[in-house]
UniProtKB/TrEMBL annotation, chain A:
GO cellular component, one term: plasma membrane
Gene source species: Pseudohalioglobus lutimaris
GO molecular function, one term: transmembrane transporter activity
Pfam families: FtsX, MacB_PCD
Protein name from the UniProt record: ABC transporter permease
Automatic annotation (TrEMBL), chain B:
Keywords of this entry: ATP-binding, Nucleotide-binding, Transport
MF term (GO), any: ATP binding
Keyword Protease: no
Name of this chain's protein: ABC transporter ATP-binding protein
PANTHER family: IMPORT ATP-BINDING PROTEIN
A Gene Ontology term for the protein's cellular component: plasma membrane
Entries under Pfam families matching the protein: ABC_tran
Domain ABC transporter as annotated: residue spans: 5-226
Species in which this protein is naturally found: Pseudohalioglobus lutimaris
Amino acid sequence: MMACLPSVSSRRTPPLFVDIWEGVRSRPGRFGLSLFAMSIGMAVLTTLIALLVGLESRSQQLSSQLGTNVIAILPKAQADRKFLLTTHAQLLRENYPGSKVSGVRHTTATTSGTDRSLSVVAVEESFFAIRQWPIIAGRFFDQSDLQNRKRYAVVTQALLRDWQWGVGDTILLKNTPFLIIGVVGSEDSALGGEYGDSRLITGETAIFVPITVASHWDDSADGSEPIDALYVRPPSHVPASQVLPGLQNLLTQPDLHLQALSWIIPASLIRNVKQMQGTVGLTVGAIAVLCLVLGGTTLTSLLVANVRERIAEIGLRRAMGATERDIALLFIAEGCAATVTAGVLGSLSIHLIIVQELALLSRFPFELGIHTLLLPIAFSVVLGALFSCWPAMSAARICPAEALRAE
Amino acid sequence: MKPILEFRGVSRSYESGSGTQTVLRDVNISIFAGEFSAITGPSGSGKSTFLNLCALLDEPTTGEIYFDDVPTSGLSEALLCNLRKNAVGMVFQQYCLLPYRTVLENVLFRFRYLDMDSAETRKLARNALAMVGLEGFEDRSTHQLSGGEMQRVGIARAIALKPRLLVADEPTGNLDSAAAAQVMRCLQQLGEQGDIAILLVTHDESLLKYTSRHLSFNDGLLTECE
């Protein structure tokens, strides 16, 4: 007799795939419907993950682009060019002798032989040290260049590549010759876009000139030496957040009329991104949850219908020796097959859409990677198990004798 | 000789809206290897309930069922399932074949919950098909089979593992007389091998000529007919 009772642990893993495939092909419409519903949810979930990870990367990118310990100060009203002046930069330099300070002024100019407009950024000699951009060739401006109002230019690497310029070449900006003395590697195009203020962008194709030259050379100048922004880098051992209150007190004195200033430090940039992450997480997350719950309940109701239609099959399986666990596992596996397929389809479709770089999506910092592929699939396994749990349990609890009577 | 299956004072009751309904009353019987028993009786007399208890798909309300002298009430669900898949074969009135599988795959389904080498199971399945006269039908779809052939596939599936007990619930209920005779001869040959006990539920008393023992149910009471 005991020969008929092999040990329970001797069972191998059941060939579930055959059973799942049979379940799918026997009810393709029903499987397709739950697949469709779940795919939408998975696509939204993939979008959410890509967006949240993208924003996280962006916050790190912004922090490194602005500089880990840099304060940017700019007027809130972008049109008011005479609001911030070079004298304010001087005031900061006098009060914070250990800090590096640079005023920045943006303009555009055309160069000879082309109508293409170039971004010209007038800066002080400390600007490159503040932003910590690497010098690729030549040198930056020094104090004597600014004092002597040298018509020197430092260009970005991208501009050098596009225009085939080199150190020692002379270029014409508004018909004024400028000698290229250095090439800088600057890649901060994302910074201004993220903060929503073009004054923070120097761009990958900018020409830097001494600010003392610009105040006379730029037609819009009238001697008051207005600037668009101020950059301050405190000494390395003093965090920007510690210096910030003092700077704010200094520049917002009533006689300076500088109350309407934006104060940007890496922490504030990151805070903006985190706020955006929170908003995106809440809105897209709510949509994802809604879609997934709808998809999940569709799956549950379809599995319940499946169980009702397959009572005889359940009886047969029980008669062949299937345990309650085997029956539950079968329906959970079928549910997971639907959700995992939906996870793969939803995730891949979003990858394809994002890779196509649609104009509509270009404003959002999506970041694709293994996480946007694997996380939705892993999540789909959990959802599949969760939403098929109840039908699976009810199938497992069907009395085999009753099930065979349904035959 | 020890019985394969023994019922001692077995009753089975169900709770329903109108109270407790007793379907089987104090059944005492021993089933031995080599016996081909026919179970007859009117509808609702307890035949199918008895068969489910024999196949270990149900549990008695009172009394004890012994399988090879082991009381089954003390067995866990896992052990009962193991006993069911190793020692009991079932044949159904509606054949219960899986529509998307071939004849051979349907017979192989007998091994679905067993840990056996696939080459060995294929060999056993082919042998079972040969025993029921369906050699060469392995790759056919079940849709291409007649009712009698489908039932023989059902029998092949039930006997593929050489069960100690084969229970058949009206296996000829949907067949014409020729096909029914074919199925009954098939079961008779199995019974004659001597190492298997067959329990057959039927309404058709003309089939009794194939069987070696006749049991009759009436209102839950089992009587042995001569």
